[in-house]
Design goal:
The complex is a heterodimer of chains A (582) and B (189). With 582 residues, chain A is mainly alpha-helical. Chain A has 19 helices and five strands. Chain B has a three-stranded antiparallel β-sheet with strand order 4-6-5. In chain B, strands 1-2 form a two-stranded antiparallel ribbon. The chains are: A mainly alpha (582), B mainly alpha (189).
Chain lengths: 582, 189
């Protein structure tokens, strides 16, 4: 680790922590229905929407209505996006005349964007018209994020309110999350990115003359370079901010038009963590005990920092197989050194390893370096972070509701140890609640392992593997983890665009999203009805270092026990092989 | 049914706001405030576009600085279809490819026995990396100097002038833009 790496990381965490309180407090005001300063501009839009859709913003929903509205909204979104992708060939604003997608690729892509996964079995610049990118994908980037925030807000209300029935209105929460949080922040971030060189134009390509002509695979002379472009910055901003991760271009944030400078890299990483980190403060404020939010944020950092260290040090150590070939991998003032396969010089090791950790601790899945080419332990980091359930910051909304599920599990485990009725924030945790918690934790874990097993047990699954040996198994395990976890990053050598890969992936993404969201809403519905018990002598305080250590241990133990056997077959055995020089 | 209708209605409102108004507003402001950046940071010479300062071009002429290897198809640095090798660290194909690249570099400069900087023999994430590390540029200086009949010191100075430091003194890595460096080099002739 060089001094510069520590300095870059210190700067990143410093800026992030400074922003948590103001943004978290602002979001609490938005979801408590208070007036915020943007009301002057956006208030009329909000009220007009209610009037046109005949929504009464004061009418709240119980958990079933809330879940129904959420499912209906996502279903309508999925069908619309599917239709758009199938029909793009006959729709306008398609200057490159791309044809419609195949049914299975459109299915995979539609589920992928509605579930906030943004798994991409297509190359953006070679498959999608600007209309599909803007009116299809960008829209789902906003609303899938907004509906994740909405479910979180419902759960927080379940904890904050006493003896209630309703959790708020899904329509109001989704609309306000989009209007007052996602849109203004995206606009700001998009413009900062453009200032760094991210393109934002209605043209789709420019042709340049090469300084030195080159030859293609067939030996034909190539004199020109076609520069693909489009409205990239606007999609880039919400891709990060909404922890979506679907790039405009095939190589995502490694592409210089998506991420041209170290500063744009910093802004993109901040945009990914900004809302998930700030929501912990929003939570603390809404349950009227800010220490609760800080406690969860501390647990997130306690897992994040060691994982970041493992990723950065593994990548900086480089690939021993290359050292034997007379290749210089040492880091100096003139060279990033380390494992540079699949990485960009402007980001080096520091900017790549941090991006990788950020994007997989959350459910973002944008990448600025190719995870498939990471060293075995460097690649284990993103894989395991996803498998932990993306609760370390996690997706916008989905991360914190996952974290709250683990906090309730920790309370329950602690209660078992000392023989007391577990309670969290004054709410008694009972059998029904624990059933929902178990569903939210176990079903995704099982889906990952079963999905990976199907992937390696069938010829259709094995067909996509591109690297030999244990690394090939890692590719499949990563794909199952990423899709169930709604992450969307990949060991991208895996060729997934087959009917088999697309359909299996769509099922995994669907299970990973809604099999958590619905139990979480049921949990919220159960919690909201409970009375609040005043803390007594036997109450376990949930803001102390002791409790943070409990939550930390529960997450790590569940994640380690569930996935260690699978990881041992992939990255761990590959690491041993690499060190042994085989 | 009412729920479905509202869901559809909300989706339409969102599509207009986030799929239409938002990208167009960003485009309008970007085109006014940052016209060069928003349109691809293009480099023009005599009214013709000769590249973008953000997108790499392939070079294998011994008289020019070589860029990083590119895994795009069908030709390297294909900016219409970005792509990476996605080769794992223990993949024999990766080791063979690196070996071949190091051999080609040394064949172009047989006297150079220094170890090759890693970025010069590995493919980038995008396949379009416009930069090489200063170490990778300096490694090529003896070859360039000989090919142009220039003193090595002058070529090193040229590299130094094209070296971009860490942004704000901290962020990212020092780097050299190969297209800009080669453009200067060819205009010397």
């Amino acid at each position: 680790m060089t001094w510069n790496i520590l300095l870059q990381y210190g700067l990143f965490f410093g800026v992030l922590l400074v922003l948590v309180k103001p943004l978290g407090g602002y979001m609490a005001r938005v979801f408590e229905g208070e007036r915020v300063w943007l009301d002057r501009v956006l208030g009329p839009v909000e009220r007009l929407t209610y009037r046109v859709l005949r929504i009464d913003p004061t009418q709240e929903m119980d958990w079933k209505d809330y879940a129904l509205a959420m499912l209906a909204f996502n279903a309508v979104g999925a069908f619309t996006l599917y239709a758009l992708l199938r029909l793009q060939g006959v729709l306008p604003w398609n200057p490159e005349r791309f044809p419609g997608m195949s049914w299975h690729l459109a299915l995979n892509t539609a589920v992928s964007f509605v579930t906030n996964t943004n798994w991409q079995n297509y190359g953006g610049e070679t498959t999608l018209s600007p209309l599909s990118q803007a009116a299809g994908l960008t829209v789902q980037n906003f609303v899938s994020a907004a509906s994740g925030i909405a479910v979180l807000v419902a759960l927080v209300r379940g904890l904050a309110r006493r003896s209630g029935k309703t959790l708020g209105s899904f329509w109001v929460d989704t609309l306000r999350a989009t209007l007052y949080v996602l849109l203004p922040l995206s606009l700001l971030i998009a413009l900062v990115l453009v200032s760094q060189g991210v393109v934002q134009t209605l043209h789709t390509s420019v042709i340049a003359a090469l300084l030195e002509p080159t030859r293609d695979e067939g030996g034909h002379l190539v004199l020109r370079q076609v520069l693909s472009m489009g409205p990239v910055a606007s999609q880039e901003a919400i891709k990060e901010l909404g922890t979506n991760g679907g790039g405009f271009f095939n190589t995502n944030s490694a592409h210089p038009f998506e991420n041209p400078t170290p500063l744009s890299n910093l802004v993109e990483m901040l945009a990914i963590l900004l809302i998930p980190a700030s929501l912990t403060y929003t939570f603390g404020k809404m349950v009227s005990d800010r220490r609760q939010g800080w406690a969860l944020l501390t647990v997130m950092f306690a897992i994040f920092v060691p994982m970041l260290w493992l990723a950065a040090s593994s990548e900086q150590a480089g690939n021993p197989a290359l050292s034997h070939l007379g290749v210089d991998q040492t880091a100096t003032a003139l060279s990033p050194g380390g494992n540079m396969e699949g990485k960009e010089v402007r980001f080096g090791i520091a900017g790549s390893a941090l991006f990788t950790t950020v994007t997989t601790a959350t459910s973002c899945g944008a990448v600025n370096a190719m995870h498939d080419s990471y060293t075995p332990l460097g690649g284990l980091v993103p894989m395991w972070l996803i498998e932990l359930g993306e609760v370390v910051f996690g997706g916008v909304g989905s991360g914190l509701y996952g974290m709250l599920v683990f906090a309730i599990l920790a309370v329950f485990v602690a209660g078992l140890m000392v023989g007391r009725t577990p309670e969290y924030l004054g709410k008694k945790i009972e059998a029904y609640d624990m059933k929902m918690v178990s569903l939210a934790i176990l079903v995704p874990a099982a889906a990952i392992l079963v999905g990976a097993a199907i992937g390696v047990a069938t010829a259709g699954g094995r067909a996509g593997i591109s690297n030999p040996g244990p690394h090939g198994f890692s590719e499949v395990l990563y794909a199952a983890s990423s899709q169930v976890g709604n992450n969307g990053s990949a060991f991208a050598g895996l060729g997934g665009n087959t009917p088999f890969g697309n359909v299996l992936g769509a099922v995994l993404m669907f299970v990973g999203r809604f099999w958590i969201k619905v139990p979480v809403l049921a949990l919220a519905g159960s919690l909201v009805a409970k009375k609040r018990i005043p803390p007594g002598a036997g109450t376990l305080p949930t803001h102390t270092p002791l409790f943070m250590a409990m939550v930390f241990s529960v997450i790590v133990i569940v994640g380690a026990l569930t996935f260690f056997p699978a990881l041992a077959l992939g990255p761990i055995v590959e690491h041993l092989q690499m060190v042994a020089g085989r | 049914m009412r729920t479905l209708a509202r869901a559809l209605g909300l989706l339409i409102v969102m599509t207009v706001l986030t799929g239409l108004v938002y990208p167009l507003v960003v485009t309008a402001i970007a085109q006014i405030a940052f016209p060069r950046e928003a349109n691809g940071s293009l480099i023009e010479r005599d009214g013709h576009v000769v590249g973008s300062s953000l997108i790499g071009q392939p070079f294998d002429d011994p008289k020019l600085f070589w860029s990083r290897p590119s895994a795009t198809t069908p030709q390297p640095d294909n900016a219409a279809s970005s792509g990476a090798s996605n080769q794992g660290p223990t993949n024999p194909a990766l080791i063979e490819a690196v070996k071949a690249r190091a051999r080609a570099l040394k064949a172009a400069d047989p006297g150079n026995t220094a170890p090759v900087p890693v970025d010069l023999v590995t493919t980038s994430g995008s396949g379009l990396d416009p930069h090489i590390s200063p170490a990778a540029a300096l490694w090529q200086v003896p070859r360039i100097a000989r090919a142009h009949g220039l003193p090595e010191k002058a070529v090193r100075e040229l590299v130094r002038r094209h070296t971009e430091g860490r942004q704000l003194g901290v962020l990212g890595e020092p780097r050299v833009n190969v297209l800009e460096l080669n453009s200067t080099l060819t205009s010397l002739r």
